[in-house]
Amino acid sequence: MLTFLYNRLCGKPAYRIETATLIGIGGRDNQEDALAYAVPNAQAGCWVIADGVGGRGAGEIASQLAVDSILTGFRNTPACTENNLRRLLESAHQAVFTARRPNTAGANMATTAAVLIRAKNRAIWGHVGDSRLYHFRDSRLMHRTADQSLLNMLVACGALPEADINHHPQRNLILHALGQDDTPAFCLHGPVSMQAGDGFLLCTDGVWELVNDIELLECWQNSHSANHWLAGLQQLLEPRAAEQNSTGKPADNYSAIAVKLTA
């Protein structure tokens, strides 16, 4: 109890942060997802996930460039501000765009991304495309990013039920991505105050296409650690990916980062 009070008075978090990662190839021939995180000091952290846009070529290069650019930028400036997050995403966009080479497989490469950054007890996040971030607190889903996609626009205007997105044939038509010709629109959220009982899940569309929001919440509620959380998620993903592969339509790559705050 004395340690808890001391940490609170000194501005130190009254929780510890656990991180776990999961990456699977699904039914594809190559892995176009990339993920990583950096904790440059006890008060700061950055978690990034990216998904190379299918059909553009060199998706694995685009996603890795975006992840590397964001983490390098955060290590240099580990600030939890909207301006810093926007700068990190803009730098990642430029890194992918300038790496394009005409008349090669990567001539039009692009990638989605979701980013969570933290400094002390504050967190903000941003995303481009349809890679998602979920924020859980205790037993509730507090926030979920809104996909930058055609289907999400249809949901917003009441033309499509949200429950139909996961299995819709046009679910992968996104409106923005890092590396596109025009600077993409970044969706930013926060800051929010972090506390024990919080959980953040960053994932690519290969996850949420196979596991719905209610099931993701149940995985969170039933977990006692970040590793346990993703182990439960993997138990859902693997058989469903295999089932989809058996139909002749390969399941997408699936990746996730779990960030869990415990007292």
From TrEMBL:
Gene3D superfamilies: PPM-type phosphatase domain (3.60.40.10)
InterPro entries with a match to the protein in the record: PPM-type-like_dom_sf, PPM-type_phosphatase-like_dom
Signal peptide: none
Domain of life: Bacteria
Pfam families from the UniProt entry: PP2C_2
Positions of the PPM-type phosphatase domain: 16-261
The protein's name in its UniProt record: Protein phosphatase 2C domain-containing protein
Organism: Methylomonas rivi
Lineage per the UniProt record: Bacteria, Pseudomonadati, Pseudomonadota, Gammaproteobacteria, Methylococcales
